[in-house]
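Morning F.,

Quick status update on the modeling queue. The single chain you submitted on Monday has been processed. Sequence for confirmation:
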Amino acid sequence: MNSARDNAVWRECRALSQCLLPLIDQETWRRDRRHDDFRERGLGVPEGERLLGTFAALTMHTVILDAAAAGRPPALEALHSTPLHTIAQTVMNKRDYEFLAAAPTHADDDAEERDLAAFRLLTYQTGHAAHVFAYLGNQVRTTFDTLANRSRTTTATCGDLRHWASLTKLLP
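Structure tokens below.
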């Protein structure tokens, strides 16, 4: 994959992932329950939300890389035309470590590097941490499915997600 194009796709995945929680939190009970769930699992709320965003970004990027491997163009247009339900299903159809293949080789900043490193560590953990990973995966799946189901269109896409984020001033 062209690295400049891949970097643009990764940055878009990251930007969209950072809009997910504010969009899903339009129903405030979801935020309160998620925060309680993080604390029950021994995660701080900021840490849990960063891991959730990283997982979501990697999931979107995984879908685009899989499409590129199948011969489809790996561009922003491909990401924006990807249905949210497809992203949700990807969480359930991949092994933990398969998401790491979608990680960029170089992070854009220290915060992104820290988030990716935390995700890598969580991926290879066993015991309680494995349950945390499963919980985060379930939250990513539920978030994409919920946003898709809220949509008035038949098949909500990542392009719709970008549009909703723009309407709420989360993205330009």
